[in-house]
From TrEMBL:
The record marks 19 as: Participates in the substrate recognition with KAPA and in a stacking interaction with the adenine ring of SAM. Keywords: Aminotransferase, Biotin biosynthesis, Cytoplasm, Pyridoxal phosphate, S-adenosyl-L-methionine, Transferase. It is found in: Cytoplasm. Catalyzes the transfer of the alpha-amino group from S-adenosyl-L-methionine (SAM) to 7-keto-8-aminopelargonic acid (KAPA) to form 7,8-diaminopelargonic acid (DAPA). It is the only aminotransferase known to utilize SAM as an amino donor. Coiled coil: none annotated. Its main location: cytoplasm. It holds the Pfam family Aminotran_3. This is Adenosylmethionine-8-amino-7-oxononanoate aminotransferase. Pyridoxal 5'-phosphate binds at residues 114-115, 257, 321-322. The modification N6-(pyridoxal phosphate)lysine is found at residue 286. One of its GO terms (cellular component) is cytoplasm. It catalyses: (8S)-8-amino-7-oxononanoate + S-adenosyl-L-methionine = S-adenosyl-4-methylsulfanyl-2-oxobutanoate + (7R,8S)-7,8-diammoniononanoate. One of its GO terms (molecular function) is pyridoxal phosphate binding.
Length: 455
């Protein structure tokens, strides 16, 4: 046991850490990080950790990328910030133009984090219907296990009981329809259901729901292809095509929350593109700035935009955050988009993903692993273990081996930055497997507290 890290102890006295029961830190203080480079985090104690989950899914091209750093330094010398109401600047204009070119959604509204993007999309959708004289369409529907952020408005569509329970009275709950999670495939008489069969079954349930509730429903919100916080629940793209068609026929908006799955995580720049569809609203954040600064954006269609364009102030979208369209964050986003082009990132990722698949084959074949799966640059393995606190134990064993992985419940997953070299790939694969065996070795010896599922 090393000497108490003063930074960690001062942190416990002064900082309220997110998504954490603080008492847990009595036994295990937070890890103090001094610096980071590429996929590696370097502790104040001199140890290094491979960032296997991209620091909560935000980092794309590694930490401290020189191209993003140079862009930020240049921007800081020119313009740090100016309010975006009544003013504009080159970074926000260029970023909006580039996002429109990438998505076909020509109007970008900015926020500072993912949950605010969710709220912007929900408010815009309901306000759109109100401006159309259909103010009864003001409710929402989401997928079972969906996660769209934790502010009071976003919790309405976040179907994760642990996050919502204490705040039930504050939340105007949305409807929930079954998830198209491919793991729900049922064994049939001659063959098991395919992921597409599961998608069609979930779409039928969505149709039944919309048939009953469309008159009061503004929008369906979903995470295309991978429901990350649910435990990397992956589904067939057919569900997105069906959902798009159903939203069209029932006059309901489709909100694609690509806060986690955008920017190449699922193999394509945006996940919904694999279904060949276009959402009415697209929420982006996390990887948008390459993991450097807090920024979110909601992109929408000409049709939505036009419904707000009027002589009447109250028909406008009167929403703002102080840092809306911050020039530094927009420059970081522009530099990140440039890196996609300069490094041909999507093509390189297909090669990197093969290498990680090969290195992780023993993990996928582990006798206690179920549903080994991958979508683009997201890997997940469900672990068959009676340990309710598997996640916490695994995290500890992985950190002891210089690897940051943080399972959700009994689902172990990796969502690494796009810049792993051979050594980092081997480090990930070898230590992920070793940490699994070390965790499972504790099964016999310890009593089980209650289950925890935290991202
Ligand atoms: C992380 C996440 C959010 C919330 O973003 P914050 O920046 O944490 O508020 C919303 N939706 C999805 C799909 C996410 O993964």
């Amino acid at each position: 046991m090393s000497a108490p890290d003063t930074l960690a102890h001062r942190s416990l006295a002064s900082v309220w850490h997110p998504c954490t029961q603080m008492k847990r830190h009595e036994a295990e203080p937070p890890v103090a990080i001094a610096r980071a480079q590429g996929p590696w985090l370097h502790g104040t104690d001199g140890r290094r950790y491979l960032d296997g989950i991209s620091s909560w899914w935000v980092n794309l091209f590694g930490h401290g990328h020189p191209h993003i750093q140079a862009a930020l330094a240049d921007q800081l010398a020119r313009l740090d910030h100016v309010m975006l109401a009544g003013f504009t600047h080159a970074p926000v204009v260029e970023l909006s133009e580039r996002l429109a070119a990438l998505t076909g959604l020509g109007h970008a509204f900015y926020g500072s984090d993912g949950a605010s993007a969710t709220e912007i999309a929900l408010k815009m959708s309901a306000h759109y219907w109100r401006n159309q004289g259909q103010s009864a369409k003001n409710r929402f529907v989401g997928l079972a296990g969906g996660y769209h952020g934790e502010t009071v408005g976003a919790l309405a569509v976040t179907d994760i009981p642990l996050f919502r329970e204490a705040y039930g009275p504050l939340v105007r709950l949305a409807g929930t329809v079954p998830s198209p999670d491919a793991r729900a495939a049922q064994p049939g008489e001659s063959a098991r259901e395919t992921p597409r069969d599961v998608a069609l079954r979930a779409a039928a349930a969505l149709e039944a729901w919309l048939a009953e509730h469309h008159a009061t429903t503004a929008a369906l919100i979903l995470e295309p292809l991978v429901q990350c916080a649910a435990g990397m629940a992956m589904h067939d793209a057919e569900y997105l095509r069906q959902a798009r068609a159903l939203c069209d026929s029932y006059n309901v908006h489709l909100v694609a929350d690509e806060i986690a799955v955008g920017f190449g995580r699922t193999g394509t720049m945006f996940a919904h593109q694999q279904a060949g569809i276009r959402p009415d609203f697209l929420c982006l954040s996390k990887g948008l700035t390459g993991g450097t600064l807090a920024l979110s954006a909601v992109l929408t269609t000409d049709t939505v935009y036009a419904a707000f364009y009027d002589d009447d102030v109250a028909r406008g979208f009167l929403h703002s955050h102080s840092y809306t369209g911050n020039p530094l964050a927009c420059r970081a986003a522009l530099a990140t988009l440039e890196l996609f082009e300069q490094t041909d990132a999507l093509a390189r990722n297909t090669v990197l993903a093969q290498a990680i698949d090969t290195a992780c084959a023993p993990l996928a074949a582990h006798p206690r692993v179920r549903h080994a799966r991958r979508q683009g640059m997201i890997w997940a393995w469900d672990v068959d273990t009676p340990l309710p606190d598997f996640a916490r134990r695994y995290h500890r064993h992985a950190m002891a081996r210089g690897l940051l992985l943080r399972p959700i419940g009994r689902t172990l997953y990796a969502m690494p930055p796009y810049v792993l070299d051979d050594e980092a790939v081997q480090h990930l694969a070898t230590n992920a497997l070793a940490a699994l065996d070390a965790t499972l070795a504790e099964e016999a010896t310890t009593p089980a507290p209650t289950e925890e599922r935290l991202p």
